[in-house]
Amino acid sequence: MPWMKRWAGPFPIVAANAAGGSITDIDGNVYVDFCLGDTGAMIGHSSPEVSAAISSQSRNGLTTMLPSQDIAWVADHLSSRFGLPKWQFCLSATDANRFSLRIARQLTGRSKVVVNDWCYHGTVDETLVILDENNKTVSRPGAIGPQVNPEITTRAVPFNDLGALEDALKIGDVACVLMEPALTNIGIVLPALGYLAGVRRLTTQYDVLLIMDETHTICAGPNGASRLWGIEPDMLVIGKTIGGGVPVAAYGMSQHVASRVEMLMKGHDLDVSGIGGTLSGSALSAAAMKATLQNSLREEDFAISIPLATRWSEAVQSVINRYSLPWTVQQLGCRAEYWFAEHPTNGAQAAATVDDALESFMHLWALNRGVLLTPFHNMALMTPHHSEANVDQHSEIFEQAVKVLVE
C-alpha cells in the first residue's frame, strides 16, 4: 500500500504479532503502538472477543448474500448509539462516503457536493480536492488520475468558515455537505464555537443534506463527535473502527432520508445501482461488528483511553513549554497530536505547518526507541490496553528528541 512509504526511515518495520496496545516485529522488538492501524485497531489489537466471533462464524459460513441475526443487532445498536434509525453496510468508509454521495445526488436532483479544503474521506474522487491560491477547487496534490476536473463535481470550502459555506450553498446546485465534525486527516483541527451549529443551520436553510464522516472522530466518545456536540446530521458514516480490524463500514440515515431511499430500493436493476456489493454486510462483517460493539468503544473504555490522551498531551505540552518551542498540542477524545505551530483553524493552515524533515526525525527517534506514532502528522491514539507507563515512555522519548534539537 502507498501509505507504507510514509513511515519514517527507508522501510517500515515488519510486524509479526500485534496484541492490545503493542506490536512485535520479526526481530522480536516490541513497540508501544499509538498508531493502531490509523484507527482500524482503535479497540486494541487481537481482541479476544472479536477473534472468537470470527472463529465461530468461520464454521457457520462467512458470506451468504443473505441477512444474519447479527447484522440486525448491529443496525439496532448503531441506531441507539448514533441516533439515526436506518443503516446500510459496506466494507470501507470510502464506500460508505461514495454511496452516501450517490444517494444525496439522487434525492436532491443536484450535482455538486461540498467538502472542506484539505479534507480526506478515503479514495472518493469528489473529495480529493483543495483550494488553490485563487480559491479555485483543484485536485489535491498526490491524487492519481482524477477522472474529471474536480470543479465539475465539488466545491471546497475552508473549515470553520460559515461565510464561504453559505456562498457555496446559495448557488442552489449542491446536493450535500460531507465533512468530519473535526478535521483529523490533515491533523486535528477543532470546530470553532458555533461553527457546527451554523453548518446545520445553513444546510437546512438551503435544503442540502448534511453527511458527517465519523470514521476518525469516534475517538471523541462512544457516540461520536456529532452527538457529543449536539449536531443532528441527515446521514452519518462510520468505518473501520467498528470492525475490530475486519474491513467494515456503515452509513446511517435519518427517517426522512431513509423513507426516500427505501423508495429507490426496488426494481430489476437494483443490483447495478452503484450502491453495495456482494460482501457488504456479510456474516463475517456482522459477527466482527457485533463483537466489537458489545465489548469495546463503550463509556467505560473511553473512561480509560481519554485520560491517557490527556496525560500524553499534558506531558508533551510541558516539554514544549520548558524548552520555549513555538509548538502546540491538540486533543480530541482519545486522540492527541502535537503541531510545529499554533493551533490551525482550517485545513490550509494545518497543511502549511507540515515540516517533513522535522516530522521524520521525531517519528524515527520514537520508532528507534520503541514507540510508533501514526505515520501521518504527529498523532497518537489511545486504547484501554495502553497504560500510563506507555504514555510516560513516549513523554521521555519526546523530551530526549527535543533536547537534541535545541542543543
SSE map:
Blueprint lengths: L14 E5 L2 E4 L4 E4 L14 H11 L10 H14 L3 E5 L2 H16 L3 E5 L12 E3 L5 E3 L14 E4 L4 H8 L4 E6 L15 H11 L3 E5 L10 H5 L6 E4 L10 E5 L1 H10 L18 H13 L3 H24 L5 E5 L2 E5 L7 H6 L3 H12 L3 E2 L6 E3 L6 H19 L1
Parallel strand pairs: 3-15, 5-8, 5-9, 9-10, 10-11
Antiparallel strand pairs: 1-2, 2-3, 4-12, 6-7, 11-12, 13-14, 14-16
Care to describe what's here?
The protein has 407 residues and is α/β, with parallel strands linked by helices. The chain has 2 domains: 139 residues, Aspartate Aminotransferase, domain 1, CATH 3.90.1150; 248 residues, Type I PLP-dependent aspartate aminotransferase-like (Major domain) (Aspartate Aminotransferase, domain 2, 3-Layer(aba) Sandwich), CATH 3.40.640.10. Helices cover 37% and strands 17% of the residues. The chain has 12 helices and 16 strands. A 7-stranded mixed sheet has the order 4-12-11-10-9-5-8, sandwiched between helices. A 4-stranded mixed sheet has the order 1-2-3-15. Strand 13 and strand 14 form a beta hairpin. Helix 4 packs parallel to helix 5 and helix 9 runs parallel beside helix 12. The protein is globular. The two termini are 37 Å apart. The model has no long low-confidence stretch (mean pLDDT 96).
